[in-house]
Amino acid sequence: MSKSAPALPTHNARALPIKRVSETLLAIWPNILGFALLFAVWHIASVYIVQSVLFPTPLAMLSKAVELAKSGVLFEHIAASLQRIVIGFTLGSMVAIPIGLAIGSFTIVRKLVEPWTEFLRFIPAVAMITIAVIWFGIGEESKIFLIIYATIFIVILNTAAGVSSISPNKIRAARALGARSWQIFFFVSLPATIPYILTGMRLAMGNSFTAIVTAEMVSANEGLGVMLWNGRMFMQVEDIFVALFCLGLLGFTVDRLFRWAIFKFAGRFSPTA
Amino acid sequence: MTFVQLKDVSKSFNSPRSKRLSVAVDQFNLDIDRGEFFCLLGPSGCGKTTVLGMLAGFEAPTQGDILLDGRKVEGPSRDRGVVFQGDDSLYPWLNALENIEFGLRMRGLPKAERQEKAQGALKLVGLTGQHDKFPSELSGGMKQRIQIARALVNEPKMLLMDEPFGALDAQTRHVMQRELRKIWQATQSTVIFITHDVDEAILLGTRVGVMTAGPGGTLRDVISVDLKGERDRLDPQYSRHFSQIHNMIRDEVAKTTLGTGA
Predict the structure, then answer these.
(1) Domain extents in chain B
(2) What residues contact residue B79 under an 8 Å CB cut-off, 6+ apart?
(3) Complex ipTM, two decimals?
């Protein structure tokens, strides 16, 4: 959410399609080069430096990925992990946002809930896996519980921080303009907090990835974590690399989508002023 | 006819660190007439912003009463439009027009009506055509214009301004001062304007109130500004006012520095 970013779309909308493509390329070529370098370094490291079957080249990884994609196995694993993340993340955020708003708005709520948040946020989701499996079994419920757990505190904390960092003059101005308390909440506090909520959600997405992979490694039938674990069990190093690569790509894509959505739908809430 | 009345208004705080009662404003008395442009001037820390905060209703006086149009001021209301020093009171997610419309929207006015009024206010502050700009796209002076328009469109009984041009560069400030006087004349509103700038107070005010140095500031003197029409710094009367007020402030500042041994 850089300051210059909002000016770009209006400028682009008026330009010709070809010009737009070339402008986009001009803007993202360092990213593309960065990715190419990543693969180049990987290739050099595996072919010339490590020279081991335990460290496949990017090409070997890609051909394995194509093979797994053709058989459909890869997509099953990805879909399983992604579905858990989406459900848990959405539920977690839906619970966390109102709690965070209440903590930020009312001192009494903050004091009541703080022991919970301050205590539980130091117990990582990973540490909760065993109890989650005991409570909810090895099915979907335990994974979704863990993602909710991984999401909830960071979103609560960011939302609450957002509410309490609203400048007092925004509230005072609204009161002097005749706004009632509920109007101040919906028309001032809430929109002013949106950038913080979204930041919390982005961070929570990262936590969700950690939690789901670990949970799937402990107990699941499919998912990227399962792929990683089976790769270890059966010494399928290429499978492990495919799973790692997919995690990176998935995280990158989801984060980009999130940023795009923020820009598209919440651009006016970006904290530039 | 007295429009705003401050009767023996005092304000003290329990300072959380020293656990002592600190007095911000002490026995403040002032009567202001309808249509006046009253400038409240004083050295920093004298409590002038506290006086404005109490007038706005953001804080209640510890002692004394504030009356507006014969009625006691209790809490903020749209009777009293407020213009703040910084731009942090604007809503960055709303564009210029939406910011100006805010008060009307809270009152539930229909969209067409409030947009028409807001456009009128935008024109009054000289920002016609800038309606779709967001605060982040506007300069400091423009943002203060938006604040003024946002307060005026709500048709308050009076306007409270807390060093509204304090953060602007000298050129912009001069332009804004001239325009504010025009707006004041056109709308015939009552204005209480806080400043620490002697020049600004004389150029804008019908009367200038000088406060004693804080802590526990109160009103020291009120000077009626005897300048006609378009105010001019070359007017000999301007110089007389300037040196008179300047000396008062200097005395007050000297008192505090002597008192603290600084």
Answers:
(1) 2-79+158-260, 92-155
(2) B68, B156, B157, B158
(3) 0.90
